[in-house]
Structures are given as structure tokens and as C-alpha cells.
Amino acid sequence: MSRVARLAAVCLLVAGAVGPAVGVVADPGTPSKATGANQPTDPRIAAVYPNPVADGDHGEFVVLDTPNGTDLGQYRLSDGDGELVLPNRTVGGRVAVTTTPRPVRNLTRRPVVAADGSVALANGGERIRLRRGNATVARARYREAPEGEIGRFGDRGTLSWRPLGRTDRPVVTATGGTARAFTLPDAPGVPLDVLRSADSRILLAGYTFTSGRVARALERAERRGVDVRVLLDAEPVDGITDRQARLLDSLVDAGVTVKLLGGPHGRYAFHHPKYAVADGRAVVLTENWKPAGTGGHASRGWGAVVSQPRIVEGLAETFRADAEWRGARPWSQVRRGRSFDRASVANGSYPGHREPETVPVNRTRLFVAPDNAGRAVTAALAGADESIDVIQMSVDGRDQRFLRATVRAARRGVDVRVLLSGAWYVEEENRRLVEHLRGVAEREDLPLAARLAEPGGDFEKIHAKGVVIDGDQALVGSLNWNGESVRSNREVVLSLEGEAVGEYYEAAFAADWNGGGSGPSPPVGIVAGVGGCALLAVLVARRIEFGENVGVGG
Q1: 3-class DSSP assignment, residue 382
Q2: Whole-angstrom Cα distance, residue 204 to residue 277?
Q3: Which among 460, 441, 472, 470 is positioned nearest to 554, based on CA atoms?
Q4: What does 9-67 look like in DSSP terms, one character per residue?
Q5: For residue 57, which phi and psi values (nearest 5 degrees)?
Q6: Using CA atoms, how far apart are residues 386 and 408, in angstroms rounded to an integer?
Q7: Are 228 and 234 in contact (CB under 8 A)?
Q8: Which residue among 11, 66, 478, 486 has the highest number of C-beta atoms inside a 10 angstrom radius?
Q9: pTM of the predicted model as reported, rounded to 2 decimal places
Q10: For 186-198, how does the pLDDT look when each residue is reduced to its tens digit (9 = 90+)?
């Protein structure tokens, strides 16, 4: 793509993006002579956006990190061929400098500074200098710039690229209130009741969508005047099925706004959360909006309904940030010219042993990936004092942060149980992992037990992604224990704290744990350590039953 005479800056940057690139330089700026401390008195070049998706590279920019009280008029940006003149304007913090401010304002909430000049950012690589008079006060260099990605320069001069537009959301916290805790397939009516209760808005986010019951509830809500919006993944692992296509067609015909996130402008590997906001309530699930999940016809799942305003609005803000991103395309555009494969639909029937309960909650926190969930879940595991119970479809050895934190807890005396799925598509790998962990635990005498679930007619397969910590904290959401979920997917997790809510999910876990296992369950202290051993990566093929895969986990 050609070079264009534009520069801009933006700060949609999240610490810990992809790994560093080789051969990049970013000078931090001039240290303060007055204090001798490493506090810059000049701006530094924090990031570049050289290769916009727009035609003609419209909307290039550079990010400047400026000390408070900086007069931009003292500085010029140069690429060796041309110079960009900055306006006389006093600023502080990160600003977006550009010759085309209108498109850049659509990409960032940071102040956008219009500038004049003839600097162009080459897609194939560039050297940029920030000059004050005749002196160069900061410099940066990049090589090949990926299309649609912003490059962030670290403090040590490393450069990492990430799709422009990823959010940097903080953990949202609320105190007090209640949660309606439930499990699937026991109580499939709970998420449906939340949707049916809406009077003004429904924001439904998911990975896949094949539930006729949910579709009918959304259509009825639209007909009674509710503003209904749906956001799904545009490119699920096994593709969009014929059933999903027909349901989405029906929703659009009923007036529902349906968008799918992905494609050339997608900012996440997968849009993988499972939640819905209905007026002042929200439901967060481990299960997809499909008969196997929310329909109660196959999967063991966990869910919670909450009404704390900060949490509900935090979910609504997350939805809006994703649905209003340019990578979210209308369903009519996504389906144009495409054909869809037929797929089987789960129709199992299971007894409802566990009733939903409305329980008090001391504190509720909302985690989202890739923004903060990796750090937040690791910290929660690191804070365990007495027990950790984990239920997962599988554990992927390519990113071991959660399992490492869990094993470290066992090594300091925390009682740990890990329950994995025994479904055919992960059974062999999960069994080998359990056996490996048992062998290590026996040598180290750790209080960590691991086993495969045997449903015993209560459900078909484990699909839950849940944790109970110290009996009074439950993590419920879409986050699988693998690197893709943590680093690359949009995921949503609720952390619910309180004795009653912890007891509910602890009892649910215990029922599945005691319902069967992969051979006799060893006593505490004889099962699973990891230490420095490389964990067994899940080897099953990426495409598996029900449109799920190990990397995504469904």
C-alpha cells in the first residue's frame, strides 16, 4: 500500500500486547536535569498507526506521551523526507496528533491534535524523530506494519502490534446486592425469564446462536417495543450453521439489530462471551445460546443473574464498545453470497436436581478478556487460603498461568480439586493430563486432586468454566483455561463473593465431583503437581463436536 502524507496519534493501547518485535527503537525523551530522576521533560513517541484499513491509508497517526504543561508548538515530527508542524497547544498525557482529525476521532477517546505537514508513514518501515529546534529529543523505528494494527513502543524500546480498537476496560466492582445462581441443564428457564422480563432493552452477546426458544423471546420483545440488539462471532470455528442463519434471518425480519464481530476489521480472535443485559438485570453464563447450552439439552454449565447497577452498566458498556466497532458487521452483510452447512441439534433430556437460588453477595466484580481477566483470575487464585475447586472442559498447556497459580496454591497447603470433561473429544488428552498430575502430586505429596467427570445421566458433557475459591468466591463466565481465551478472545467473567453464593456453586461442584471419576479418586495429597514440567497440551483437532474447539472451548 502507498505512503500517505498523514500523521495521527491514539491511545487505545493495553499493556502486555503481543511479544516484542526485533530491531525496533524508541527513545523515551530527555531526562529531567533539575531532579536527576528519569522523568522526561520532552514528549516521547508512544505508538504508531502506519497502515490503516481505510483506502489510501486514510487516518495514519502517531501517539505522543507528553509531560503536563507541554507546549506542542516547540516540536516537529520528521521522517527524514518531510516534517510535521505541531500547533501551539498546551497538553499533558497522551494525545493523538494527525493531519486528518475527523477519522482519528472515531478511533480514540483521547484528545486529537490537528497538525500540518508532509510526513508519511511507510507501511514497510519508518524512522521517526521528534525535534525541538535542532535537537532530536525522541526517536522511534518500526519495520513492516500489519494492516489495521497499532504499534506500541515499550519503555525499553520494544514494539508490540495489536489490532486497533481493542478496549482497555478496568475491573468493575459493586458491593452488596444479590445474585440468582443456577446451573444447567437443571434450570434452562432462568436465562429465558431474564429476556422475557425486559421492557426497554436487551443486549445479547454470544459466540454462536441456535436456540429457537431464545430467538422467539427476542422477537416477542422487539414486537412489544423493546430495543433488542444481538452481537455474535462472525467466524466461529466450525462456521455458521444453516440453523443459525435461519434464526438470524428471522430476528432481522422481526426488527432485531443483529451484528457479527470479526472479519478483516475484527479485533479479537473470537467474540466468545455469553451474557445478556435486560433492562436493569444481566445474566452471565458459561454456555452458548443454543439447545446444548442454555436450552439444557447437553452441557453442564453455570450461570448467574445480577442487578447491581455498576455491573449491569459495565456489561452494557462492553457490549456497546464491541457492537459499535467497525468490525461489527450487520448480519445481512455477513450472510451475503454465503451458504451454510447443516448441523445436528442436541435434544437430550436430563433431570433438574439443582434449583436456582437467589443469594446475598458481598462483592461482585466484572472481569473481561483480554483487558483484565488474565491478571484478575490469576490474582484470585493466588489469594486462596483454604480451597480451590475448578471445573473446566479441558486445560490447555500452552498457557499455564491459571494452572501454575493453582498448583502454587496446593504447594502452600490449599486443598485443590480439578474436574475435567470426559467427553469423547477430550477424554484421551484429559485422562493423560490427570494421570500425569497424579504422578507428580504423589512425588510431591500435594493436596491437589484431579479427575474426569462421569455425568451419570445428569448431563452429557462438561462445558462449564467455573472456579470456587475458599468456599466464598465463585468465578462464572466464558473464560476457558487456555491462552487464546486469555490473550486473544473477548470473554466475560463474574466474580461473586459471599458465603451463600460460594456454598451454592461449591455444592454444585461437589455433586459433579462425587458423581463419578476416572478410576478411584486418590486422597488429598496424592494427585497433581506441575512444578517445572511442561504440561500436556490438548492435542485434539481444532474442529470438534457442537462447533467448539480446544482453543475456543465453546
Answers
A1: helix
A2: 6
A3: 460
A4: ------SS-SPPPSS-EE---PBPTTT-SS-BSS-EEEEEE---SSGGGTT-EEEEEEE
A5: 55, 35
A6: 13
A7: no
A8: 478
A9: 0.77
A10: 999 999 999 999 9
Please work out, in degrees rounded to the nearest 5, the angle formed at the alpha carbon of residue 504 by the alpha carbons of 501 and 509. Answer: 125
Total residue count of the chain as it appears in this document: 554
Query: pLDDT tens digit string along 529-548?
Result: 333 222 323 323 323 222 33
For 472, residues 6+ apart whose C-beta sits below 8 A from its C-beta are 497, 498, 499, 501, 502
**Block residue for cell numbers 493453582:** 406
Distance CA 79, CA 35 (A): 32
Q: b/e per residue, 472-499, with b = 16+ CB within 10 A?
A: bbbbbbbbbbbbbbbbbbbbbbbbbbbe
Q: Give CA angle at 403 (401, 406), nearest 5°.
A: 110
Position 398 scores a pLDDT of 64
Question: Rounded to whole angstroms, how far apart are CA atoms 148 and 13?
Answer: 14
Distance between CA 352 and CA 336 in Å, rounded?
41
Query: For residue 9, what pLDDT band results from cuts at 50, 70 and 90?
Result: very low
Beta strands in 214-262, from DSSP E residues, in sequence order: 227-233, 257-261
What is the grid cell recorded at 194?
431474564
Which single residue is written with the C-alpha cell 442454555?
A: 294
C-alpha cell at 246: 435461519
What are phi and psi for residue 152, nearest 5 degrees?
-105, 125
For residue 440 the three cell numbers come to: 507428580
The model's confidence at residue 323, banded by pLDDT at 50, 70 and 90, is very high
Q: Tell me which range, 40-49, 354-363, 437-446, is most confidently predicted by mean pLDDT.
A: 354-363
Contacts of 277 (CB under 8 A, 6+ apart): 201, 202, 203, 312, 315, 316, 319
- Cβ contact 171:367 at 8 Å: yes
Amino acid at residue number 170: P
Residue 426 carries which side chain, given as an amino acid letter?
V
Strand-pair partners of 96 = 63, 112
- Work out the mean pLDDT of the chain and round it to a whole number: 85
